[in-house]
Amino acid sequence: MNDKYIGLDVHQSTIVMGVTDEKGKQLMQSIVETKASTIREAINGLSGTLHVTFEEGTHAHWLYDVLRPQVASLVVCDPRRNKLLQSGNKADKVDAWKLANLLRAGLLTPVYHGEQGTRTLKELVHSYEGLVQDSTRVMNRLKALFRSRAIPCTGRKIYQVAQRKQWLDLLTDPGARMRAEHLYQQLEYLQPLRQTAKRLMLAESRKHSASKVLRQIPSLGPIRVAQILATVTTPHRFRTKRQFWAYIGLGVRTESSAQYQIIQGQVRKSGKLASTRGLNQNYNRTLKYVFKSAATRARATGPFKRSYESSLSKGIRPTMALLTLARKIAAVTLVLWKKGERFDSKKLTSQTT
After folding, report:
1. Which of 124, 165, 251, 324 could form a disulfide with 245 if both were Cys (CB 3.0 to 4.6 A apart)?
2. How many CB atoms lie within 10 A of CB 320?
3. Quick one: what percent of the chain has pLDDT higher than 90?
4. What pLDDT band is residue 52 in, cutting at 50, 70 and 90?
5. Integer Cα distance of 213 and 351 in angstroms
């Protein structure tokens, strides 16, 4: 066999490349420009079966598309789980060698990069989410300006165009008034952009067949469905609902030790229970918000309300009942997406397994 393992330490202007063989022997090292043509040239100059890895980051999507047709396997690894990379010396060349050796040993945790069909939707969702954050930030600053002067401003009347002059007249300080005017101008510019981004995102989401399936699930509106499609891409990434729960931050993390003991010369499993350490911390923030907000809405009305009330009647705390409901909605989403079935409240139990 002539396998070569290549670790890439990627930066804005340069990429440090370290190459090892299947025995871990360092074969070569080079520094190339962060440019598609030079990267392809460097990879094409190597013989044998090529296995490449680099860390998830700003260039990950672009570099994946550049290298995937050129190599036998490509792993975009999760830097948050590369604990071994932090041991010892830290430098670009050292990191490239470490990545190559971790790839050879199979010790890297991959980040999913695959389907091309949702790339446009991903960008539109990112655009919409960014504009929502920007406009929310401006609105919060505007209210903070009035509250700092003991001017009550609850509700949304403060943002209405017809009442802006009345609100500005309440500010007697010229500097504060000018600042409020600037914030209103920002809001006037951002709100139309936000609506346009929303319209384009939803139009792109409707092009995907899975959108019709997921929009039948109560509490999953068109925006949440678009975010799910853009983030997950395909449900077949997850074999079970528990894997999906872990990805969206709803998986319970447990720890255990001394699970086995020797009794009369035989290995027996001890009766120790695993200690619960809360929910997993390495998760997708967008999806956790989507399913928790969907559960908050679903507990008040619709077919999921009965499940929430059933949890409460068993003495489960409201926060845990809400978590259970979020898991149920996530499980239904995964199952229906995989099977392409319609949502049926009468089959709610079977559609979560």
Report:
1. 251
2. 11
3. 77
4. very high
5. 13
344 Cβ partners below 8 Å, 6+ apart? 351
For 252, what's the count of Cα atoms within 13 Å in the CB-facing half-sphere? 9
Q: CB within 8 A of 81, min separation 6: which ones?
A: 109, 282
For the chain, the domains span 3-105, 119-205, 209-352
Which residues, in sequence order, are CB contacts of 243 under 8 Å at separation 6+? none
The pLDDT value given to residue 113? 87
Compute the average pLDDT of residues 143-166: 93
pLDDT in tens, 243-292: 999 999 998 887 777 778 888 888 888 777 666 678 888 899 999 999 99
Q: Give me the residue label for tokens 């939707």.
A: 121
Instruction: Name the 3-class secondary structure at 110.
Output: strand
Q: Which residues contact 36 (CB under 8 A, 6 or more apart)?
A: 66
Q: What is the CATH number of domain 3-105?
A: 3.30.420.40
Of 181, 182, 189, the closest CA to residue 165 belongs to 181
Asked if residues 84 and 106 have their Cβ atoms less than 8 Å apart, the reply is: no
Binned at pLDDT 50, 70 and 90, residue 353 comes out as low
